[in-house]
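We treat protein structure as text, and this decision shapes the records that our systems exchange. Because each token names a local backbone shape, the row as a whole describes the fold. An entry from our holdings is shown next, in its original layout:
>
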Amino acid sequence: MYITLKERVEKILPKWKSRYANPFDAATDLGLLKATVSDPDSLNLNKRHSRIRQQAKSLERELWGGNGG
């Protein structure tokens, strides 16, 4: 069974609405959400899609032979 972030916040801080505009801000202050730094290349969709296309072409060559397009 899953518990939502809002439910987790309400369990720890029942009156969170009097102090916070949204459950995300409360969850951050309570330590339930933490920011992480991502590799900028992982956020660039052009590079990500290029890698995916390359993987697809490689798999196609592996399965069916040929140059993959």
About this structure: Residues 36-69 form one domain.
